[in-house]
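Posting this for the archive.
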Amino acid sequence: MDVVSDAISAVRTGRPSSNRLRVGGSWCTRLAPYEGAGFHVVLAGGCWLVPETGGEPVTLGAGDVVLLPHGAGHVLADSPGDTARAVPFEEMRRPDGGGDGREVELLCGKYRLDRSRTHPLMAELPEVVHLPNRVGRHPELRSAVDLLANELDERRPGACLALPSLLDLLLIYMVRAWMSEAATGSWPSVLNDPVTTAALRALHSDPAAPWTNDRLAAAAGVSRATLARRFTALVGRAPMAYLTWWRLTLAATRLRDTDAPLATVARESGYGSPYALSHAFSREFGVTPGKYRMGTVSS
């Protein structure tokens, strides 16, 4: 696994949901804050997105994609003024356009995320990631948008399976696109540094291996001192501290998503015994693995 795939997999739960919205004329709808990530794909026409966190309104055109990775509340409307008229999205009437040439069609959806173990790469995404439709930019994202538009007719054979899979693909492409254009944030720099990237790829490929600083430095092709300096400066944690955190994050994911015995979870996460995992897990999360599993199942 690579860092981006792991960062997304650690927080993704369930399947994404989506709704097709076709409106026209004067309209305004509010989407409440959500414990996950929201997204919109403009299939036709144009509209405005107004963040409720105080950010500037964003104008969206046909082919644009927008990700709200922290589930921020926001308004979608035909114009950025007078958002007090907004109707809750769940109550929004969805006529087939207004007949005035200003019809807008969007795919609006949500990803379910477990924020208790958010990877720092995902945590530093801005409140709104706007990816305009520009010729020659992010061709894989553009292809995903085109495929989504073609699969929205649920009467097509296999569409019910294809659509959620394409939405998962869309999330990966949105994160990739942000990383390629980000003017702020440390993780685009982290993954552009060959030494740190080599070390992270080694840790993520086999987190249960008996890693040491010397062994990891050899995998990255540098001295131990060079690895420690560059890794810590960019990632914000020393290599072995990051490994400990990632192992516990993996353990939490397995406890949430599987019924594997604690001994199996411990072994797959790089711990020699259930006791060793339980001690480290309780120190990190403030709860034993058993209670954590019970809490995630009941919720």
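The beta strands are 17-23, 28-31, 36-44, 47-51, 58-60, 65-68, 74-77, 87-88, 104-112, 129-131. DSSP finds twelve helices and ten strands in the chain.
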